[in-house]
Amino acid sequence: MNTVWLSLGTNIGDRSCFLQLAIENIQQKIGNVSKRSSVYESEPWGFTADQPFLNQVIKVETTLLPNPLLLKLQDIERGLGRKRNSGVYESRTIDIDILFYNNLKINNPDLTIPHPLLHQRNFIMIPLAEIAGDFIHPVFNKSLDGLAKTCKDNKSVEVYIQSQTTIVQKNEI
Known about the structure:
The chain has helices spanning 15-29, 66-79, 122-132, 144-149; strands at residues 2-10, 31-36, 40-42, 53-62, 95-101, 106-108, 111-113, 157-159. The protein is α+β, with helices and mostly antiparallel strands.
């Protein structure tokens, strides 16, 4: 069994629903979701957008190898309405990134593991450190807690509290 850490992000439509649907699809098609971070709301990174992102990191146990895993994750993204413009950061219904796959280091045109920019992004580092703070980054040989504390990203990342809408019915007399 392989341990994979995935980052989920969404800033279009019902963001909470897209996160939940992504996790359900991952559970069905990839493997057991064994840990989930809190959900965080964050400013877009690398571009401007009208809506902030919801982000979450999950730990998944899978039998899939890295490239088939990537293809299945891209299928899940497409199934949830993700449209890609190669090399352009933009708003999206769902984004699923492979952060780590065991302790592997992969660097090929289609896939780089560990994710090459994770240590520069608080929207990844904060939820990742929440559930995997002791994990040692296989390239930097530092704990994720340590990397999170030295991240220079100044974008806002806050725990997301979903508002509960209460419907009050009036009794007519």
